[in-house]
Amino acid sequence: MLRKSRKRIKVNLVDGGWDANQQANAIQNAISSGADGIVISPVDPSAVCTYVDEALDAGIEVCALTTQIGTGDAEDPVYPETVGLVGHIETEVGRTAMDIAAEALDRSGKIAIIEGTPGMSDTEGRKKVCIVFYFRKYCGRQHYQLQVKIRF
Q: What pTM was estimated for this model as a whole?
């Protein structure tokens, strides 16, 4: 006969305020308060690496939510030693968007790429596919890049 285990999980929800410094402080507070796990949607995926590494060194499990941790250059979108990334693969999002745009234009025309916040792993992953893969695939297409900062 199996017995049902009753484990209790306490959740402390912290608003990072879309500010990298606030997120860094929140991670450091989680470490000092003895958290067992951290789920983070990084505002600045590169800047948060130092603090994620500190959490991992403290034996805390870390999971990225919607935005990968790091530069977005790695083949594996899951930051080393973290338990995972809950979201989607940005390069696949970029590939799908470009496929739809190219098909809609019957593979002839101009495509504008309007990116989100420069440097964010989601922006960089999508842009990488759009520029490198599809610019080569649809050679001769004119490429325009506009940068739009989105604030929430």
A: 0.64
